[in-house]
Design the sequence.
């Protein structure tokens, strides 16, 4: 039998909204809400929070301890190394063959969608499967699934800073080496933004939680879309922000470094 690890990366030193993962939503840290939602996944056996060794991330480690969730601490900037070391540390018997990557800025991530992506990954036999290449779901519901072997090869081979910081570009950009699959949602909802990078993002997510969580703590994507369709002004709060802005900036920095 092979095992599946979910590794959620989180840090408090984000530049646009520092400490965002620990900001309170309905009196609970944002990260604790996301952890609770990930526990609804049926097709994975363990959840690990991968944070940095910096003192500023002690609060994340403390939260994990309070919630009885595994925490791994590694490099701040070389997130690919953090993932590899976290996976390796939680694979003593070499039974882990599948890694699921999620990021700590997605507090309304949907466990049902993650299960569908994991299922497609296994059915396709691919090395890598995501729901964002191309995206048909809102920013903030991204999930990537890949083999431990693909992670290991990327860890050995990836050289660019953007490939180390964003974990999977080496895999996604080398489709001659890795077989890739993509989950496509029946309806294109990619124009919605449900991730948290800036203050207006957090404002929107807080309003979503205030409207839905007291009635249905396990609210899903369908509930969110219904709310946003009924209250279109909510969805307009953060429409000016570019999707994957952090990755785009990192790749531009790589190009500038190459030209210097």
Sequence:
């Amino acid at each position: 039998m092979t095992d599946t690890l979910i590794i959620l990366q989180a840090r408090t030193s984000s530049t646009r909204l520092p400490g965002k993962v620990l900001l309170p939503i309905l009196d609970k840290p944002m990260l604790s809400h996301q952890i609770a939602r990930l526990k609804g996944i049926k097709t994975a056996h363990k959840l690990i929070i991968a944070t940095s060794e910096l003192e500023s991330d002690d609060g994340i480690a403390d939260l994990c301890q309070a919630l009885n969730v595994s925490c791994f601490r590694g490099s701040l900037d070389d997130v690919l190394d953090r993932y590899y070391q976290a996976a390796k540390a939680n694979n003593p018997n070499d039974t882990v063959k599948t890694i699921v990557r999620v990021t700590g800025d997605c507090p309304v991530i949907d466990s049902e969608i993650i299960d569908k992506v994991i299922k497609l990954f296994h059915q396709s036999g691919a090395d890598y499967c995501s729901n964002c290449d191309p995206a048909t779901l809102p920013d903030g519901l991204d999930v990537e699934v890949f083999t431990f072997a693909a992670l290991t090869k990327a860890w050995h081979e990836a050289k660019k800073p953007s490939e180390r910081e964003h974990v999977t570009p080496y895999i996604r950009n080398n489709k001659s080496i890795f077989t890739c699959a993509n989950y496509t949602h029946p309806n294109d909802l990619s124009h919605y933004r449900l991730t948290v990078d800036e203050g207006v993002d957090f404002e929107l997510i807080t309003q979503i939680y205030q409207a839905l969580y007291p009635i249905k703590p396990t609210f899903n994507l369908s509930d969110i879309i219904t709310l946003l369709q009924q209250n279109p002004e909510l969805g307009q709060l953060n429409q000016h922000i570019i999707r994957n802005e952090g990755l785009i900036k990192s790749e531009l920095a790589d190009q500038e470094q190459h030209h210097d």
User: Anything to note?
Assistant: The longest helix spans residues 245-259. The radius of gyration is 18 Å. The chain is about 40% helix and 15% strand. The chain has one domain: 3-259.
